[in-house]
Amino acid sequence: MSLFFSKSSPLKLLFTWIACLWILHPIPSHAETIDKKKLLKIEAAYLYKFTKFIKWPDRLFNQSSNLNICLVGSNLDALNRLLTKGVSGKQSNGRTLRIYYYQTDHPSTNEHNCHLIYLDQHASNSLTTNLDFPSTLLISAPNHKHKKDSLIYLEILNGKLVFFINQNHLDTSELEINAALLSLARKRL
Q1: Distance from chain centroid for Cα 60
Q2: 10 neighbors 92 (Cβ within 8 angstroms)
Q3: Does the model's pTM come out above 0.90?
Q4: Cβ contacts of residue 171 below 8 Å, gap of 6+?
Q5: Residue 181 contacts residue 53 (beta carbons within 8 Å)
Q6: What's the rounded Cα separation, in Å, for the pair 86 and 47?
Q7: Would you say residue 3 lies in a domain?
Q8: Nearest CA-CA partner of 29 in 154, 158, 163
Q9: 3-state DSSP assignment of residue 57
Q10: What domain of life does the UniProt record list for this protein's source (predicted)?
Q11: Distances in Å between the alpha carbon of 167 and those of 9, 57, 173, 177, 180?
Q12: Would you say 95 and 61 are in contact if contact means Cβ atoms under 8 Å apart?
């Protein structure tokens, strides 16, 4: 896990991280069984690294300097344990990361002022009606049926976990996404 959580310059770290994910930890093709442990580590690395290359509006941090990552869905127990152990309490752009896990499809994500919300593939889209979309980073897991409602969504393509940035949501977002991250993302819509 130290590979994913080491400190270095942001741009160098991003390119090293992406190269390691693609070269050292390839995900098998669709015909093969996907190694769920490797996929889990890559998902955790993506969520952590996204916090380093995205800037939220300062107004969201009036009461706390924490950056809150909220996991939503019933199939994220292992990801929650991994992030809680490896990421919770660490710093990202001067903000302390906190992990919250909601196993229900209708959580009160505003209770913890979720800055990043990760939806598992079965999570309902109903929670998105109460979100402040311009300032919340909504990320969908692979195979999520409402991925087009997310700013970032993950997919398995050619045996690798890749991420897409929804250009329509980016255009209306208050979030600032680092150019290096944008250059590595696939773009759709």
Answers
A1: 18
A2: no
A3: no
A4: none
A5: yes
A6: 12
A7: no
A8: 158
A9: coil
A10: Bacteria
A11: 27, 19, 10, 12, 16
A12: yes
Tallying the residues shown for the chain, one arrives at 189
Q: What is the pLDDT of residue 167?
A: 87
Token pair in block for residue 71:
């996991």
- We report the CATH number of the domain holding residue 38 as 3.40.50
Q: Is 2 among the domain residues?
A: no
Which of 44-53, 68-77, 159-168 holds the top average pLDDT?
44-53
Collapsing DSSP states into helix, strand and coil, what is residue 93?
A: coil
In this structure, is residue 35 part of a structural domain?
yes
Q: Which domain holds residue 132?
A: 10-188
| Residue 105 φ then ψ, to 5° | -80, -10
| Nearest residue to 128 (alpha-carbon basis) of 112, 113, 107, 142 | 107
Strand 116-119 to strand 66-72: parallel, antiparallel, or no bridges (unpaired)? Answer: parallel
E strand residue ranges, the chain = 54-55, 66-72, 91-92, 95-102, 116-119, 137-140, 152-157, 160-166, 176-177, 186-188
Domain membership of residue 176 (yes or no) is yes
Count of domains for the chain: 1
The DSSP 8-state label assigned to residue 28 in this structure reads: P
